[in-house]
Amino acid sequence: MSTPAAEHAPGLAPADGIAARARGLTKAYGAGETAVLALDSVDVDVVRGRFTAVMGPSGSGKSTLMHCLAGLDTVSAGQVWLGDTEITGLRERELTRLRRDRIGFMFQSFNLIPTLNALENITLPMDIAGRKPDTTWLDQVIDTLGLRDRLGHRPSQLSGGQQQRVACARALASRPELIFADEPTGNLDSRAGLEVLGFLREAVDQLGQTVVMVTHDPGAAAHSDLVLFLGDGRIVDEMRRPTAEAVLERMKRFDVIRTRPGDSGAPASPEEN
Amino acid sequence: MLKATLRSFLAHKGRLLLSALAVVLSVAFVTGSLIFSDTVSRTFDRLFASTAADVTVSPKEELDEAVPSGRTATLPAALATRVRQVDGVAAARADVKVNGLTVVNEDNEPVGPTTGAPTIGNAWNPNERSPVRLDSGHAPRGPGQALLDAETAGRKDVRVGDTLTVIAPPGSFRVRVVGIVTFRTTNPGSALLYFDPPTAQAKLLGRPGTATGISVDAARGVSDDQLKRRVAGALGSHTYDFRTAGEQAESDVEQLGGFLDVIKYVMLGFAGVAVLVGVFLIVNTFSMLIAQRTRELGLLRALGAERRQVQASVLTEALLLGLIGSTLGLAAGIALAAGLIGLMGLLGMNIDAGEMAIGWVTPVAAYVVGLGVTFVAAYLPARRAAGVSPMAALSDAEVAGVGRPLRMRAVAGAVVGAAGAAALAGCAVSQQTSSAASLLGLGVALTLIATVIAGPLLVRPVIRVLGAAFPALFGSIGRMSQRNALRNPRRTGATAAALMVGIALVGGMSVASESMTASFDRQIDKTLGADFVVQNSNFQTFPQEVTDKVRRTDGVGLVVRGRFTPVAVRLPDGDRVETTAAGYGPRLDEVANITYTQGDSAAALASGHLAMDRDFARDHDVRVGSTLPVEFPGGRSARLTVGALTDQDAAEGFGTQGGLFFGLGTLERYAPGGQDSALYVNAAAGTSDDALRAALEKTLDPYPQVQVRDMADYKRLVHDQIAVLLYLVYALLGLAIIIAVLGVVNTLALSVVERTREIGLLRAIGLARRQLRRMIRLESVVIAVFGAVLGLALGLVWGVCMHQVLALQGMTALAIPWLTIVLVVVGSAVVGVVAALLPALRASRMNVLAAIAHE
Q1: Residue of B nearest to A95 (CA)
Q2: Distances B234 to B81, B228, B237, B634 between C-alpha atoms, Å
Q3: Which of A47, A53, A144, B672 is 20 to 30 A distant from B216 in Cα terms?
Q4: B479/A116 touch (CB, cutoff 8 Å), yes or no
Q5: Has residue A267 been placed in a domain?
Q6: Is A80 a domain residue?
Q7: How far apart are CA B295 and CA B395, in angstroms?
């Protein structure tokens, strides 16, 4: 099932290429008869300069998809490219370097190193690489996220929203090809969550970044350009220019499928986690 | 509750394993030393009991020799005839037994043990109590024949028919080995030679018709005590020493006991260090386990467990640990004892490891030590566990102990530290050796406790400085490792404390020994005026013929002889002091620079006069011109006049207090039969030192026990003797470090587990495994170096105070062993790297995804 998200969406700047691509991406846990398919031959293209959301009920494989695209997890079959680089088959050391230099990460919680202050956390990937940050870009990121007066603070001195903003700044700071955000608003109150989503939107619109966000919150998904719906390890649907209501409606249909297995023609696969 | 305790014990077995190791080590050393000394003393009890005659008559000796004089006390051999006539005597033999022989083969190589055990020459009087039996060859007949023990013969490949040279006090003589004897029981490590009785008397004692003792066998039905009374009655009880077999065996064991005691105390020292450092490790482990389980304990409390129950649960875990550790330690102790017995075998002391003696005290000690240590160490953490509030189950608990203020510690540390500092200051200004030493001990103990208490407070300032260069050197990895070490000062402090204790000990001891070395050097520089000193390396004496040959060597200008004798002096203040006095030949001033405060060498060495140290004289109301009764060995006594007072550094050695000396003539008159201990040699005019040295070495070639030393060699000899003490301390340090490493491993392993998510995050955003390992390694290094720095600081203070005590003994030079200090710091960094190996490996093997998802 191909998901060509590359077509021009009205009102958006023309996409200039593919940031990440997967073909026949399969992830199985266990072997033989007890094998569980978390991802079942997924094809996906992530368009550069867009904000893509991945949704699905829990156990649908959305986190696994993100982990495989980001080089955090190995695949059972299929191929994954980041830009022109095929990352399936890369060795551990090369994957680590790839994550460090070309990918930005935001997690639901525990995003920051508690011993480092905000600025040190932001520049950490570059420090690890031994590279000097691009100061103009760094200043722009810090100012965009409004962190200027928080740079010397340790994570424990920051609110949850501020912490996620620092994590967002870190993900942006090295100007990665792709930013993966795993439930970035999951632990935040709605105001702080909206703020973070706003920043991710801004990162795409004004800074030209590419963002893939895994979420189960329709409201969060509504900030994206494109929503991919995952069910039982497959991409079952997609929605352009989503609204919270539309996404919510679509999600409800998963429950219907769930309660009547076989209706959609998809085999009922066990939960993968 | 018990089930929960057992489950929790099993769940944390990996971490408890490290603590168990600490218990095992301490218990092993305690039991090992007990088993070893029990086994050895039982073996020797048996040996001496089986070889001692029913009654032994020996020359009366009231003075013990601290420094060998070379004199062998004798009695007339004809005494045996008189004893035989006593009613109840079945047989009496005149024995000859002379220690301190040197035996060389045709190549002038020593045949006897070179490990310090004696080579003993005996008269061959075969009887059922002989420790040896003749295995091959025949009994020695006439001069020029001897038997040798099989072990020595085997070691040096001596066979029947070989010729040996025996260097005995009266002179050297050549013998042919005509037979080999084997020990019936255990060889205490010495080499034995047997000669026929006339040869032994003439060649070993130098006087036919003398003996060193009479062995008396009782007739049937006469007890040893009865026999002793009768023999003593016949000979006069004040003339000789009489001992029954039991008493003789006891006295023999006592003589050997000194050496065995040293081994025992060394082992107990190791056990003590192991216990001390082990306590830190166990306290730390339990604290960490409890910190980790705060929520779990909170849940138990919320579910209705009482404080008492929680505390009991933790203590039960500790007791289980102690039980397992003690049992394993007991087994390890048996292995250690077997190893020691094997080592003794290499030194020539053959003990049957199969006869290992394990008294009831040994297992009791094992479990008392093992259980005691764990119980004591776990008590505080258990109290803390009991204090966990039920709310802890609900809150998103940070690790307990991080946030709690260290104020209590600051106060307690400051109070104890001030008391310790006061004690050390008191020691530094004290003028009395005994009070200074006890103040030193008190100060050392108090400052150690204070540093342990206050350690966590010092973590922040010290590690900030130590790790200051890390961010610049290692970027953010360095920064994170430095801050990780600062994260939980309590834990870092406790972990480093284990290392600190060992290093403080070594720091103090090395300052003291370095100062001693420097003092001796200074003293040698100041007093030794001779070109060369001829002497043995172990203060043993050598026969007259060596002196004669040295005198006749080409290029020798002046030879001044030095001897020692035990004496007892009755002083004007009423004290009777047993000490060692030296006797020197004339022209002493040409080979030594002695500082006199009153009198001079001529007055000191004049017949019937003596010299002593000024301070000793002052302490005992002695003045120049005082006449003192002096007792000499063999019951002789004399009244000697004080002719001079000296001002010597290091006048007080072991058993040589007072710095007494007199002329050689005086010594030979009142303590005849001794041998020279040292010859101070000056080159004749026109002879170079090198030429004289070569000539002397050629002269001494047949006497491998005697060496020529110039001032540098002489210093080296002294250094080597002090170094032995230091090696022991280093061995203790090694043990302390092993246990401390376990502690660091423990702490790091826990930190890695606690920081699982953090590590997962770091790996996700691109930290390479190599970099992660380096981060943990650096943290480990900074903790270890922190412990070393604290330990060295403490050790230096102790060392300087120890030096004050030494200074009161005349060792005034203060020397700081900078090289050792640098090596210790570098070494501690290595220790850190080693300790980080496993935790770092474990962290780098962590699955990134699992780590991120970790609760």
Answers
A1: B766
A2: 12, 10, 8, 21
A3: B672
A4: yes
A5: no
A6: yes
A7: 8
DSSP letter for each residue of B679-720: EEEEEPTT--HHHHHHHHHHHTTT-TTEEEE-HHHHHHHHHH
Residue B850 has pLDDT above 80, yes or no: no
Residue A53, φ and ψ in degrees, nearest 5: -110, 145
Chain B contacts of A96, Cβ < 8 Å?
A: 763, 766-769
Tokens 């006469």 sit on residue: B222
Q: With an 8 Å Cβ cutoff, are A130 and B475 in contact?
A: yes
How much is the ipTM here? 0.81
Instruction: Read off the pLDDT of residues B102-160 as tens digits, 9 standing for 90 and up.
Output: 899 888 888 887 766 788 899 998 888 888 888 888 999 988 899 999 888 888 889 99
Q: Which of A67, A93, A105 sits opposite B765 (nearest CB)?
A: A105
B 26-65: CB under 8 A from A: none
Task: Tell me whether residue A41 is in a domain.
Answer: yes
pLDDT of B373 reads: 84
Whether the predicted model's global pTM rises above the 0.80 cut: no
Residue-number span of the structural domain to which A163 is assigned: 18-259
Query: Which residue among B766, B849, B852 places its CB closest to the CB of A100?
Result: B766
* Rounded (5°) CA angle B605-B609-B611: 70
Residue A35 has pLDDT above 60, yes or no: yes
Q: Which of A171, A168, A174 is nearest to A131 (CA)?
A: A174
> Would residue A3 count as lying in a domain?
no
The Cα-based distances of B455 to B373, B462, B733, B798, B832 in angstroms read 22, 10, 20, 17, 18
Question: Out of A67, A96, A110, whose CB is closest to B849?
Answer: A67
Count of domains forming chain A: 1
The secondary structure of B562-575 as a DSSP string is EEEEEEEEE-TTS-
- CA-based Rg of chain A, rounded to a whole angstrom? 18
The arithmetic mean of pLDDT across residues B94-101, rounded, is: 88
Chain A residues with CB inside 8 Å of B852's CB? 107, 110
Q: pLDDT tens for residues B611-628? A: 998 888 888 899 899 899
In angstroms, rounded to a whole number, what is the distance separating the alpha carbons of residues B754 and B748? 10
Q: What would the DSSP string read from start to end of B98-127?
A: E---EEE-TTS-B-S-SSSPPEEEEE----
Section B556-569 average pLDDT:
91
The answer to whether the Cα torsion of B321, B324, B328, B333 is positive or negative is positive
Pairwise CB contact (< 8 Å): B476 & A128: yes
Report whether A128 contacts B477 (CB < 8 A).
yes
Instruction: State the CATH number of the domain containing residue A164.
Output: 3.40.50.300
Judge whether B218 and B55 are in contact, CB under 8 Å.
Answer: yes
> DSSP labels for B795-830?
HHHHHHHHHHHHHHTT-------HHHHHHHHHHHHH
DSSP B202: I
Whether the CB-CB separation of A116 and A152 falls below 8 Å is answered with no
Name B154's Cβ contacts closer than 8 Å, sequence gap at least 6.
none
pLDDT at A262 over 50: no
The residue-averaged pLDDT of B423-451 equals 83
**Computed from CA positions of residues B200, B201, B207, B213, in that sequence, does the dihedral angle turn out positive or negative?**
positive
Name chain B contacts of A67, Cβ cutoff 8 Å.
849
Classify strands B145-149 and B171-183 as parallel, antiparallel or unpaired.
parallel
pLDDT, one tens digit per residue, over B244-264 is: 888 888 887 777 666 677 777
Average pLDDT over residues A244-257: 79
**Token match 């290029």: residue?**
B555
| pLDDT of the residue at B794 | 92
Percent of chain A residues topping a pLDDT of 70: 87
